[in-house]
Amino acid sequence: MEPFLHLDAVALPIPRSNVDTDQIVPARYLQKPRSDDFGQFLFRDLRFDKQGREISGFILNQPPYRQARVVVAQSNFGCGSSREHAVWALHDYGFRAVIAPSFGDIFFSNALKNGLLPIVLPAEATAMLLEKAQAVPGMRVVIDLPSQIVTAADGSIHAFQIDAFSKKCLIEGLNEIDYTLQNADHITAFERRHAANI
Amino acid sequence: MSNESAPRTLFEKIWSRHQILRREDGQSLLYVDRHMVQDGSAPAFEMLRQQRRAPRSPQRTFATPDHYVPTGNRDLNSVADPEKRAMVNALKNDTAKAGIRFFGLEDPRQGIVHVVGPEQGLSLPGSLIVCGDSHTSTHGALGALAFGIGASEVAHVLATQSIWQRKPGTIRVTIDGRIKEGVSAKDIILAIISRIGAAGATGHIIEYAGSAITALSMEGRLTVCNMSIEAGARAGMIAPDDTTFTWLAGRPFAPSGTDWDTSLARWRGLASDPGAEFDQEVRMRADEIVPMVTWGNSPEDALPISGRVPDPSLASNADSQAAMNSTLAYMGLEPGMLLTDIFVDQVFIGSCTNGRIEDLRSAAVVAKGRHIANGVQAWVVPGSNLVKLQAEQEGLDKIFIDAGFDWRYAGCSMCLATNGDHVGPQKRCASTSNRNFVGRQGPGSRTHLMSPAMAAAAAVTGHLTDVRQLMERG
Q: What percent of chain A is helix, strand and coil (3-state, nearest 5)?
């Protein structure tokens, strides 16, 4: 996993709630190997028409937002299908963080495992960031994971919570399987106890 | 609360029984009793290979292909796209190499993983079940803690038979009273989601309770728990009771003999204790629930069939007004129009939500002696091969075929259109599946979610219809 520490990037405002993973990457690309660049499938049906031409009205196709690396959205971002491909698509395009008042649970944990930082901020703070990112195209936000702070271009500062372990994994790019297998003895002991219980 | 004598919920009992250890940051390592794998799992096996790890407990894992299988026949070569075929073949090869039980296309037990697990008695009360598919919440209907996971987590479970989780909050949704004639489990769950919202249960598990829930058949309970994820819930669950035990007894992988007696004694103690506390309580009355349909692109966009398409000009703020306008444009609907004036091109009866035998029976009651409307294409896709066989023994296939429906083989089919079965661009589908997201049933597809009986009613009338009107005719 690619480590995450700091980010200074253009914000992409998506002023909608319930942005589902079917939008982020349509189901017909799920059979593609991970070695493919999933960035090309990101918001595929919103970004491109049937002939493969860019839809100019979609915000990601507008020049100030093309370089965006952080999404700002409303509640329940990444709801729906458990597909990790949605996180891969955002990551491969270049996004490194998503700010929203809440996330689909599975998306949230998929994001943490792929170096994409999901930041929960209160609805009022997200609404304000959304408004500013729309009013000032190309507005930047600075994310400091070690100190758990988002700073917007207008100077507004927003602290966010993240559990210590996820933070450590993101900063160090840790492989979770290796970490868990350090506890293999616990698993084996539990397994013996548990089997006797069934 | 760590006090062992304090009243505990069903969820807390299962959680604590599966906790291997707890980290300082509050995350728990939970033991996984049953890992279900389907043909979307190739990336997880690939991750495992890259890390040179082998599955730890293949005997606790079972696999069946569902997302990419053909439903017109059982010949994998009829799936035109080689990449899709490769997904089914990858599952066959990966599971063979790992020694994981595999119900392939030629196996009578194959079907949608969330139909097959309960059907085979692989999903048991009190167990912890995971699968790389969001609708794993289905298995909670049997009194299990079951939730969907991502590809990295599938790889983690394969390698360690465990998963890290932060303890979610709990919501109890209590529905008391008796549901009315013509109202089904699908209407109940759509009514709940429209009430609490698509994010209403984010970070929580839902326990469904109340006399209307306990009166549901096992099939109905599976439907309700299936769609918990559409309310944002991590999992849905229903306390196991005699309905559960009767349904499970004698299933191939369920315990038998003295093991059954021991299990039964333990399962009877799983229900939430009187006085157990939930973080949130939601109460609804069963007699207020009527047949529901969705008009928009989120399962929360559900309304009674007697309703009208909502008017964006009445939205609470500019953002939701804009969102509603784009939803109506996508769905090709006018504000204020009657839902019953919405004509359909396609009908899909199937999916892990509504592909079980009772679902097909309830649709067949409506289809019997009628014929699908001109220009409508209607499909029935059983949730498993065994559901298909049983339906054929009961003569349901003949009812559907006589009424002009396509009678298909088991699979996910056009619920998410990954196998090539799909709803055409700008075509409108009455669907018993779980999601009406933009493009869900194919690019440009327009989905209206509803119960199997309501979908059959839409098929025979050609438009969204209150099924109770067809039932009155007898």
A: 40, 20, 40
Q: From A79, which residue of chain B is nearest by alpha-carbon distance? A: B232
> Which of A33, A82, A180 is closest, CB to CB, to B162?
A180
Round to whole Å and give the CA distance between A20 and B175.
28
With a pLDDT cut of 70, the percent of chain B lying above it is 99
Q: Which residue has the tokens 């804009």?
A: B322
- Which residues, at least 6 apart from A108, have a Cβ–Cβ distance to it below 8 Å? A78, A118
Rounded to the nearest 10°, the torsion over CA B388, B390, B393, B399 is -50
Q: How far from each other are the two terminal CA atoms of chain A, in whole angstroms?
A: 37
Q: Strand A117-120 vs strand B19-22: parallel, antiparallel, or unpaired?
A: unpaired
Q: How far is the C-alpha of A177 from the C-alpha of A145, rounded, in Å?
A: 23
CB atoms within 10 A of CB A35: 7
Q: What Å distances lie between residue B19 and B39, B56, B93, B287, B328, CA to CA? A: 29, 18, 32, 40, 46
User: Both tokens of residue A165?
Assistant: 């372990």
Rounded to 5°, the CA angle A196-A197-A198 comes to 100
Q: Which of residues 47-86 of A touch B (CB under 8 A)?
A: 50, 74-76, 79-85
pLDDT category at A196 given cuts 50, 70, 90 is low
Partner residues linked to A79 by β-bridges = A20
Q: What is the number of other CB atoms lying within 10 angstroms of the CB of residue A29?
A: 19
Indicate the pTM of the whole model.
0.97
Q: In angstroms, how far apart are the furthest CA atoms of chain A?
A: 63
